[in-house]
Amino acid sequence: MNKTTAPKAPDHLREDALDRKEIFKGHLLHVVQDRVRLPNAREAYREYVLHPGAVMIVPLIMQSDGAALVVMERQYRHPVGQVMLEFPAGKLDPGEDPVSCGQRELREETGYVANEWAIAGQLHPCIGYSNEVIHVHFAQGLQAETRQLDDEEFLDVFTAHPDEVMDWCKSGLITDGKTLTACLWLNQWLKGEWPLEWMAVGPSRP
Amino acid sequence: MNKTTAPKAPDHLREDALDRKEIFKGHLLHVVQDRVRLPNAREAYREYVLHPGAVMIVPLIMQSDGAALVVMERQYRHPVGQVMLEFPAGKLDPGEDPVSCGQRELREETGYVANEWAIAGQLHPCIGYSNEVIHVHFAQGLQAETRQLDDEEFLDVFTAHPDEVMDWCKSGLITDGKTLTACLWLNQWLKGEWPLEWMAVGPSRP
């Protein structure tokens, strides 16, 4: 069931998977239906999206006065019918490690290459109906190169001050869940509460 | 297309929906595939989950020293194969307004009834493949009654200090996206940065 990293759940909460039915494998989505045994020994069905995992990057541009700007994107998201303000993110390719994915997505979507990376944590965006995990990375030491968007990808790239970004979260201009989680990390890091461990990372070329 | 609240997107980013195909309507999930016209006039398919929307509640228990505790849940989530630490949440019933949904879910899942509610904001947990919106509510003035879990619902309820909860976010014990977003709001509210407007709400009875 590809659940090797799952910690053992207390018996009074745990559900055991019995079997799986393929529901749909489309251009983007892969949906399955698992039959599970509930803690009360009854059976139920759990339908959800199988997802390869993703990486979100909080790209920092350090200014001469020591203040940081962040790089963000404006992108139309058809499911919610809106242009969303987001941090760059993208899906893991098969076998790809998260830092390589972060490097690739940052370069493809924004054109930036970063030489220092920090792994902040992970988030599960949608635990009710998806197994997706998003690795949250910070990147600094940015150099502008050329972006390489996919054929079906259209997005604007811009920079913003973290105070401005926090105001957008408060006012409801930012509602993307992964970006709100990134802002929790960004705010705590800027306040010195949640330190990051930076790693030097050489450029990865396609 | 039920997108009445969507602001008009700039033309260089907007996708226009052409038609829709039903993919799957199961016990839990409703999946559709829309054909869209991209900004470059080419066509693409967007597959995603149609969701009725949900409410998350940050329930506060004010202590005699003025400090707040929050009410949380431990629940096994089959898609991620783990017990997750979460704020209470649940789906909107057809025609239900978010505050009534928050009252209902809080009482069903935790047994608490709250007489003051505040609307913090909204989050879109999964903009790549779901139209779900989660309304973020805070609740205080809690009174314990009897909880009424669904037949297929198993969860533990506990209280925690906000500092402890923030430590769990930092350490990776909390990875649920909606709960991380709630912690951004909780932390900013406790610091006096993001004030909440409280409304007196009478008890809603089933």
Kindly summarize this structure in a few lines.
Two copies of one chain form a homodimer. Chain A is of the alpha+beta class and 206 residues long.
Polypeptide structure, described:
- Two copies of one chain form a homodimer.
- Chain A is an alpha+beta fold and 206 residues long.
- Helices cover 18% and strands 41% of the residues of chain A.
- The first copy, chain A, is built from three helices and eleven strands; from the N terminus they run E-E-E-E-E-E-E-H-E-E-E-H-H-E.
- Chain A has helices spanning 98-110, 162-171, 177-190, and strands spanning 16-25, 30-37, 43-49, 54-62, 68-77, 82-86, 89-91, 112-123, 134-144, 155-160, 198-200.
- In chain A, strands 4, 5, 6, 7, 8, 9, 10 and 11 form an eight-stranded mixed β-sheet that branches. In chain A, strands 1-2-3 form a three-stranded antiparallel β-sheet, with no helix packed on it.
- In chain A, helix 2 crosses helix 3.
- The first copy, chain A, is globular.
- Chain A starts with 15 loop residues before the first strand and ends in a 6-residue tail after the last strand.
- In chain A, 39% of the residues are buried.
- Residues 1-7 of chain A have low confidence and may be disordered.
- At the A-B interface, strand 1, strand 2, strand 3, strand 5 and strand 6 of A face strand 1, strand 2, strand 3, strand 5 and strand 6 of B.
